[in-house]
Specification:
Aminopeptidase; 414 residues; eight-stranded mixed sheet; alpha+beta; binds zinc ion; 13 helices
Length: 414
């Protein structure tokens, strides 16, 4: 038997445990930096498989280490957090959990991004590796990261001394479940996920009675003109072949029909792939908003707050080639070149902290029959629930088997 078949021989043995862990995590989702139960379950499973486990890195982060002689050190990373979404999948193990958010309001919580798939699959991979010690040499570092959705979990682990507390990897590997047919595996060298920036812009006007616009500088009109003007950043200032997204996701102003308010607040989200384009778009936003405020005769300059920032995910060519070769050996025609994604991730901060290469791939989680039907009807966008949708519900299999197998075999030469 070669190393692939030896490792895969253990798959039947770990599958029931992986499925049970998945259903359990799915029914008990936790928001970012509060993944205490999830982290505890993962740590317990890793310890039982023989890993040396460190808990509480960056709050709830967990790292398990298993060494079998000298050889490469490979870090496998999964994120653990759920989202403030009300699950509407109708599954028997659907979440009914709630949590009090940062704003003090109780909200529903669900694994609408599939991070439960990532944790369960990675625990399964860790167990497979532990069961087949004869086929590999080196060190496996299993890392479970908190709070990916808020973009601060990787940083929390790094600021808590991650690089001094765990072995330095030669490469970092990670995966995400996406709305492609279950069984699909997608790799991509170079740019894969966008950088993301969220901004808050406060426009200052002068409030007055709704009947007396001559006494006011109306921030509602100023905000409306900004929203329209900002549409031209991507459409008129970037080349048609330069991908970028600019969304004004929130606009708030005023309290009633007969009062002109004194301020308006816009919240914007920007997605880019190239640092120079990112700078260009952020500068264009500031230039246009300041000019609109000046044009309106605003009494004060607008204010700009940077709410969050995700780095771009740019996969290392050699690491991606190695992983793609390994996947071709076990998934055959299931392996594809993944499309460029406008989603974002903080995963790359971890390899950046160690100064090592990484590659990040995706696996499908959608029922293949549902996907095929939607494809035939031309209704994939409407009928296939995407990540963060209340109806996002990966099918158990072959999604979990694919995730378990991919992470375990990614760095094993066939
Ligand atoms: Zn997400
Ligand atoms: Zn996610």
């Amino acid at each position: 038997m070669n190393s692939v078949t030896t490792v895969l021989a253990g798959l039947d043995g770990v599958r029931p445990g992986v499925e049970a862990l998945y259903r359990d995590l799915h029914a008990h989702p936790e928001l970012g930096l509060r993944e205490h139960r999830t982290a505890g379950k993962a740590a317990e499973a890793l310890r039982a498989a023989g890993y040396a486990v460190t808990e509480g890195i960056g709050g709830t982060g967990v790292v398990g280490v298993l060494t079998r002689g000298s050889g490469p050190t490979v870090m496998l990373r999964a994120d653990m957090d759920a989202l403030p979404v009300k699950e509407e999948t109708g599954l028997p193990y659907a979440s009914t959990a709630t949590a009090v958010g940062a704003d003090g309001v109780e909200q529903p919580v669900a694994h609408a991004c599939g991070h439960d798939v990532h944790v369960a699959a990675l625990v399964g991979s860790a167990r497979l590796m532990a069961r087949a010690p004869e086929v590999w040499r080196g060190t496996v570092v299993v890392l479970l990261q908190p709070s990916e959705e808020n973009g601060n979990g990787a940083r929390a682990m790094i600021e808590d001394g991650l690089t001094d507390r765990v072995p330095r990897p030669d490469v970092v590997l990670a995966q995400h479940v996406l709305p492609c047919p279950a069984g699909y595996v997608g790799t991509r060298a170079g740019s894969f996920l966008s950088a993301a920036d969220s901004l808050r812009v406060t426009l200052h006007g002068r409030g007055a009675h709704g009947s007396a616009p001559q006494a006011a500088v109306d921030p509602v009109v100023m905000a409306a003109l900004c929203v329209v003007r900002l549409q031209t950043v991507v459409s008129r200032e970037l080349s048609a072949t330069t991908p970028a997204v600019l969304t004004v996701g929130s606009i708030r102003s005023g309290t009633g029909p007969n009062v002109i308010p004194d301020r308006a607040v816009l919240e914007l989200n920007v997605r880019t792939y190239d640092p120079a384009v990112r700078e260009q778009v952020l500068a264009a936003i500031e230039r246009m908003v300041r000019a609109e405020a000046r044009a309106a005769g605003a009494p004060r300059e607008p204010e700009f707050e940077h709410l969050s920032s995700f780095p771009p995910t740019v996969n290392d060519q050699d690491a991606t080639d190695t992983v793609t070769r390994a996947f071709a050996a076990c998934f055959g025609r299931g392996v594809h070149t993944a499309d460029l994604q406008t989603a974002s991730e903080d995963m790359s901060e971890i390899p950046a902290a160690f100064g090592v290469p990484y590659t990040y791939w995706c696996i499908g989680g959608t029922d293949p029959v549902l996907y095929e039907d939607a494809l035939r009807r031309g209704t994939v966008a409407q009928d296939v629930p995407v990540n963060h949708s209340p109806r996002f519900a990966p099918v158990l299999q072959p999604t979990l088997d694919t995730g378990v197998t991919a992470a375990a075999l990614a760095w094993l030469a066939p």
